[in-house]
Here is the input.
Amino acid sequence: MEAARTSWGATGVLFAAVGLVIASGFFRPPEVAADARGEVPAASAVLLTVAPRSDPAEAGRRALRDRLSRNPRDEEAATALAERCIMQARKTRDPRWLGQAQAALGPFWSDADPSAEVLLLRATIRQSLHAFPEALTDLDRATRLRADPQIELTRATVLAILGRFEEAREACTKVSARLPVVGAGCTAQIEAATGSARPAVSRLDAVLAGAGAATEEIPWLLSLRAEAHLRLGDRGAARSDLLRALAGDPQDAYSRILLQDTHIDEANEQSLAAAIALTVGHENDDAVMLRGAIAAKRAHHPQADVFARELREKQQAARDRGDTVHRREEALFALHVDGDAVKALPLAEANFGVQKEPADVRLLLEAAIAAHEPLRGKPAADFARKTKLEDPVIAALLPQVPQ
Here is the structure.
């Protein structure tokens, strides 16, 4: 199982670290959507409870909203507000902040010739809605307007999710030219997903041992190294890195989810209890709760039914809104909580049609085998073989799928 994260470091660069939403990761922002239907909320809509007026971050956002109320075409204010809302979405994993970001960009959203900044922010929101081709179109346009490592890193994110690894590697190289530490992390993620996990670990060892990484970048780099360790089957080393990452940033949902997945895969009583304990204080994060539900089900924990019921209600509400963004999570829930492989398989197939991270490969293989229709897992098996994906769990599943 694997996760997803984004973080803005001191450089102002978007670290789109993506993960297997159940245990490892890649380059992707948080799995949240501006609005389940992709609609732009009215700027005046009450979307969420704002922070106290004494909160400096909210004061800054309020000042930008005031500027936009006087001049909605103030692009500097609009992009600054959108960026801050995206940062808040990453921090809180509350999708409504992306709705606020989209609303801030409203006057520029449909412009025929948006600026590079608007294109980048629009792409960030679109990829959160899993509109990856549209996001990539925006990013390609942005690169023609401005040479920017942030644009290239976000391109690497989207290209990797689509399984276009060589193009993603080229984008990482362009990041490295301006931001060597960030570029190294970007490249290591590609290496870890394409049969070079050991070189990825060595690359990250060197970066973490050097003095070039900013404090804000270290938890991100540790989580990348943890993913590479998982590709090699070293859960102990991965767990150590993830605990260090969370010590550096306790609000890092990506590392938290990845650590839960690592515990779940260990599958003993102690590790399942640890996965459940990681939900405490993070019950509003559906991805964290999903892992808690899976662990609780396997551990026969008294909270298992409570977790499952809450997630079922949230999934039904999303379906009622027409939300199709979270097929991976729905498939995981159906397969590992409800034990319904027949329901999980078409969801896993639809998800794999959109994104091809290692978690998506594993999910489709597991669902196809559990549903006694291994041939339907062939697209994932073919992709894993073609990309030389390293993963002990996936390696054990591949022989069960016809070539």
In short: The longest helix spans residues 75-92. Strands lie at 4-8, 14-20, 24-26. Confidence is low (pLDDT under 50) at residues 3-50.
